[in-house]
Each structure stands twice: as structure tokens, then as C-alpha cells.
Amino acid sequence: MSTQRHFRVWRGDDEGGELTDFTVEVNEGEVVLDVIHRLQATQAPDLAVRWNCKAGKCGSCSAEINGRPRLLCMTRMNLFGDDETITVTPVRTFPVIRDLVTDVSYNYDKARAMPAFAPPSDLEPGEYRMQQVDVERSQEFRKCIECFLCQNTCHVVRDHEENKPDFSGPRMFIRAAELDMHPLDERDDRKELAQAEQGLGYCNITKCCTEVCPEHIKITDNAIIPMKERVVDRKYDPVTWLGRKIFRR
Ligand code: SF4
Ligand code: F3S
Ligand code: FES
User: pTM (2 decimals)?
Assistant: First the structure.
């Protein structure tokens, strides 16, 4: 069964824009991305939208739907009431290129700044066998599809451009936590780096990042809070402090 639905879609570029109204056909079982594609096919051929897999796995189609950060391809139309207007806007934290497409290079800059995995240099291929328990500990973080919805949602940068240089964001904190848990990573200062150079201290555990993660990664509880706790332990525990002084760790 098909119905006519009311959509408002933000159209514009880095110089400004506005919400444009559309009435568009919607069929049973469709997701918001299907409707955006129908708009492109029938009414707005130049409407810019980024997408790739249409399966919730490439992380390209992030946008805000009725103000909530979501993947366009994983948001079913039956989530909304029949008479509800559906407003689709680009993610707010990153600069608009055109329509629903934003420049997410902030995230890649932060990823490049992250010190890479550092295994022992003399380890030969096949020489070390990962224990299942070590695989499982970081498995959750490896589900990340890099949609950057968590980065977009975090209030530290959402309306505070000035914090971006000092704050790497929740996606980078789960990467730091993952590397910190890796038995072969020789850097023992991942938590301190997160605190000193990636802005872990800016996070006040609001958990908004966790709420919007389409992979349901427990970003705050399983990555951020344990790293914060261990930074505090290392800093204030007198035995740890003395050990670090003696062994210069
Ligand atoms: Fe997206 Fe979740 Fe990865 Fe953040 S942690 S980039 S919300 S999948
Ligand atoms: Fe931001 Fe998530 Fe912390 S939303 S403040 S990184 S808990
Ligand atoms: Fe790939 Fe939506 S198109 S996650």
C-alpha cells in the first residue's frame, strides 16, 4: 500500500540553505533513504545525499531525522505517525558541502593523529597466538562502522567548533580503548594520551554518543569510563606514582 507523506529536506551549501517541502509517495516497508531516492528520481534530481551499502554497514548515510541523528538507510518509515512531517537535515557538527552531504574530514584528521598499533618489532608472523578472551574484549569496538553519529552528537563539539582541535571524540576513544586492551600493543600510555592529547577530560559522561550508536556499542560504559578510571588510578595511586618515577613509565 502506498501513501503520500510530507517531507521537509534541508537544501543548500556552505553559504546557507533552507528546508524545502515535498509531498512524496511512500510504500510499505520503506526506509527514509528509499524516500530520499524517490525524491531524487521524481522531484529533486540534484538533491545530494551520501550513501553506499543501504544495509547499515558502510556508515555513509548519517543525517538527522526529526532532530535525531540516525542512519537514513536503517530508519523505517513506520517509526513515524501517518500524519507526521519528516524533517531530514544534514548532521550538524560537520560543515555542509551540499544538501545532506557534510565534510567529515575532522574525523579522519583525528584518526590520523592516533598513534598506530605498535606490536614488538621482533615479532615474526604467526609467532603469537591471540587468546580468545583477548579477541572478545575488544570485539565490541571493532563493530564500529564509522558513521560518526557519536561524534556528531557529543555536546563537546556539537555547538563548540572551538573544542575541535583539542577533542578527538567518542569514536577515537573506543579506538584508544581497543588498542589499550591489545596484548601486543607496546604503548603503555594510551590512556594518558587520551587524557593529554585527545581531550578525554572534556567528556563528562553524558552518554549521548552511546544512545545514537547504530551498532549499540557501549561507548561510555565500556571504553570511556574504564579509561577515565585508570587514568585517575595511575595519577593518584602513590604506589603507581612511585613506580613510574623509578621506572620512568
Ligand atoms: Fe558510529 Fe557507533 Fe562507530 Fe560512533 S562508535 S562511529 S556511532 S558505529
Ligand atoms: Fe560526549 Fe559521549 Fe562523553 S557524548 S561527553 S563523549 S559520554
Ligand atoms: Fe551504508 Fe546507510 S548506506 S550505512
Answer: 0.91
